[in-house]
Design a protein that fits this description.
This protein is of the alpha+beta class. It contains three helices and four strands, in the order E-H-H-E-E-H-E. The chain is globular and about 40 Å long. It comes from Belliella alkalica.
């Protein structure tokens, strides 16, 4: 059985194209880690007016990508993305969990 996890993040204004480019070229080893960790489906949507990203993950198990911070490749990705996103001191993206209020 799968469950959905949703959260929001912020990119720096003007970084939309670079964010898209980096994700178009996502590292194969990072993609493999996500899949191997049970992330079955992962979509990120951009609200260009507010530079807010909305992420939805379908996971088999209890954990999503936000729980992989101890992995070296994830830390490397966070460092790579830190110049275009709002981040915490450890370069992890500032993310806020979203509560599901409706599903059809």
């Amino acid at each position: 059985m799968t469950k959905q996890i949703a959260f929001r993040m912020k990119i720096k204004p003007g970084a939309e194209s670079e964010y898209q480019k980096r994700h178009d070229e996502i590292w194969p080893e990072l993609k493999n880690l996500l899949k191997d960790s049970g992330v079955v489906n992962y979509s990120i949507f951009l609200d260009r007016e507010t530079s807010t990203l909305f992420a939805i993950q379908e996971v088999s198990g209890e954990n999503g990508s936000q729980d992989l911070g101890n992995e070296a490749i994830v830390q490397k990705w966070w460092a790579y993305m830190a110049d275009i996103m709002d981040t915490n001191e450890d370069n992890s993206p500032v993310s806020v969990s979203l509560e599901e209020v409706f599903r059809l």
